[in-house]
Amino acid sequence: MQDRPRRLRRTPALRALTREVRLHPEQFIHPIFVHEQEGETPIATMPGVSRHSIAGAVQQARTALALGIPSVILFGIPDHKDALGTQAYADDGIIQRATRAIKAEVPGVTVITDTCLCEYTDHGHCGPLCEIPHVQGPDAWTVDNDPTLDLLARTAVSQARAGADVVAPSTMMDGMVGAIRAALDEAGFTHTPIMSYAVKYASAYYGPFRDAAGSTPSVGNRATYQMDPAGGHREALREARLDVQQGADTLMVKPALAYLDVLKVLRDEFDLPVIAYNVSGEYSLIKAAAQLGFMDERRTVLETLTSIRRAGADAIITYHALDAARWLREDRA
């Protein structure tokens, strides 16, 4: 007897009946850039994405929830930047004010706050800088790890105080999860989860984000603290294991598409939820190809997000979230 797998692909109903991987808006996290100005400013390198005022961020959260997307992640662009990124942990900082506004006006949305300093420092790095003795070139300047931990802890507590449901440290500092967990617990926020950017690579795919957030480094090299793309699975497992030991509640792989193998390894190794960040460069590549008529945007986006889910992601941070949710709604109608 000949096997005929095609029997189950014959109609849309049969294909839907036998799918192993499903996409739903509940699995998406919608990123929102919030700035101090009124109105919105389109981001040239990310077609369809803008920087929003606080009022605009509230509307973005409201739109996401109406489409069935229950979670947003906030990235702040302050007017004032300095060497220590002080606006990141100011109680009246842009993210703190945006969080309060969203929680007051759209209480059903889960607000995740990016807990980092790169958008707030005048040099574009994720913490205060130090010079490495006897090193020349772009690697001579790096983030001073241990002083940064205190600033990250202060940032997380400030965000939790403002109403953040989840804090998401993204600096790749050694010990960041433990420092934040201790500070949150001491401040009475034992219930606040930590979504750790556990496995974050020094990737070329972040280019449009740096344009959006104004966080391109003026000196130094993020490769001194973000992971080497050729580092392999052992390094990824080591980083993730350390974050689990320090109290991370979820693990993240960033970027998603170039590291689906790493995502699969983490999914197989750990029983925590695993989040994938479908980053700005991945988004912009599809948008540019679609605008040129080279690819069908809808089909490409949904196939891409399905591949991330198939690799093991429980949820996906993606700039496609609103469009994808609309398309999935149309498919169900």
TrEMBL record:
Catalytic activity entry: 2 5-aminolevulinate = porphobilinogen + 2 H2O + H(+)
Active site as annotated: K200, K254
InterPro entries to which the protein is assigned, alphabetical: ALAD, ALAD_AS, Aldolase_TIM
Metabolic or biological pathway, per its Swiss-Prot or TrEMBL entry: Porphyrin-containing compound metabolism; protoporphyrin-IX biosynthesis; coproporphyrinogen-III from 5-aminolevulinate: step 1/4
GO molecular function: porphobilinogen synthase activity; zinc ion binding
A single cellular component GO annotation: cytosol
The enzyme's E.C. designation: 4.2.1.24
Ligand binding (5-aminolevulinate 2): S280, Y319
Binding site residues for Zn(2+): C116, C118, C126
Similarity field: Belongs to the ALAD family.
Name of the protein in question: Delta-aminolevulinic acid dehydratase
